[in-house]
Write a structure and sequence with these properties.
The chain is mainly alpha-helical. The protein has two domains: 1-90, Rna Polymerase Sigma Factor, Chain: A; 91-181, Orthogonal Bundle (Arc Repressor Mutant, subunit A), CATH 1.10.10. The protein is 67% helix and 0% strand. The chain is elongated.
């Protein structure tokens, strides 16, 4: 759990407090980076750059309660910068099972494939909402868009995912008719 006291201490230069904050956020940082980037090394680079940038600019954070939102926004910007540099579309096909990395990798292949087909604006809100459990309000803050825009992107993404997954399931019907799920 993030402590606003740790944020205040970190803003005053307390390195141990900053390290505690980053440790509390590291799994979220990884999941967000992995949701945007493909390669493990790219994720590690983006997270490392995010930690460095946040360390140097934490004193500029106005509201300690939004530390995690602020940190994730820095990470998203860093990931997007990396994507622009590479000039290629990345998919989520190689995401490890986010809920339990020990489970079989094939469990969510269809969903990952469908998510990877979404445009960046839809993919980002899906990753933040479903994989990071961010609220609509937090996503709006992180992406610097209105809450209504987040809701409409989520609804559109759900519709696109449902359509894509229904096509996959219809192709997977056996002779008796039930869908493979």
């Amino acid at each position: 759990m993030l402590s606003e006291n740790d944020v205040l201490l970190a803003q005053r230069g307390n390195e141990e407090a900053f390290i505690r904050l980053i440790r509390n956020c590291e799994s979220s940082l990884y999941r967000v980076a992995k949701g945007i980037l493909k390669e493990e090394l790219d994720c590690a680079d983006a997270i490392q750059e995010t930690i460095l940038k946040s360390y140097h600019s934490i004193s500029k954070l106005k509201n300690p309660a939004y530390f995690k939102t602020w940190l994730i926004r820095i990470l998203i910007n860093e990931c997007n910068d990396m994507l622009k540099k590479k000039k290629k579309i990345l998919s989520l096909n190689h995401i490890d099972n986010l809920a339990n990395p020990q489970k079989a990798e094939n469990e969510f292949d269809e969903l990952r494939a469908a998510i990877s087909k979404l445009s960046e604006k839809y993919r980002t809100v899906v990753v933040l909402f479903y994989f990071e459990d961010c609220s609509i309000k937090d996503i709006a803050l992180v992406l610097n868009i209105r809450e209504g825009t987040v809701k409409s992107r989520l609804n559109r993404a759900r519709a696109l995912l449902a359509n894509d997954l229904n096509k996959v399931n219809e192709e997977g019907r056996d002779e008796n008719g039930p869908l493979k799920i």
